[in-house]
Amino acid sequence: MQRAQSLSTMRPAVMPANAPGLMTLVPTARARLDLRLDVFGDGRERQTGQDPSVRAQGERWTGLLLWQVKRVRDYVDADLHGAMSLSVAAAHARLSPGYFSRRFRQSFGVTFSRFVAARRVERARGLLVGGASKLCEIALACGFADQAHFTRTFGNLMGCTPGRWRRQAATSRLSA
Question: Using one digit for the tens of pLDDT, what is the confidence trace for 61-120?
Fold first, then answer.
């Protein structure tokens, strides 16, 4: 059995003499092949000299849609004191958890868990300034497991402990 030869090594005797239109099909087939290569991502770069990563960044839309952002924010804000679930948030956005996680990070610049922690700390800051509640009560009201979890997360995001932040906020309010 003979192996198939490429068009460039094929002998002219193989092509029938009475088919002048056959030679016009060869460039068309080449164009179709280039189109197929472009679909798989390596044809256009070869033709235009573009870097595939640059092209992908310029053409792809990233992030969540506006209605998805609103529904996820509403979900987080409504149940900030409870346990947050990535899969429930993804269901609110009508996406799979993995796809939602990637799109969420592209939209907000942080992971879902980091976003929830930041929203909880933001709420805790309001409670710290507004009242004389104990730190453990504020921690539970904002959805943290305990005061240690609250202090650790608050310190990571704000750079100081909740007690120190409360004292600084009180002194800045008195001096203003």
Answer: 689 999 999 999 999 999 898 899 999 999 999 999 999 999 999 999 999 999 999 999
The CA distance from 38 to 24, in Å, is 22
Task: Name the more confident of 51 and 176.
Answer: 176
User: Contact at 8 Å (CB) between 120 and 142?
Assistant: yes
Please, are residues 124 and 150 in contact by the beta-carbon 8 Å criterion? yes
With 0.70 as the threshold, say if the pTM is over it.
no
Alpha-carbon gap, residue 136 to 94, rounded angstroms: 36
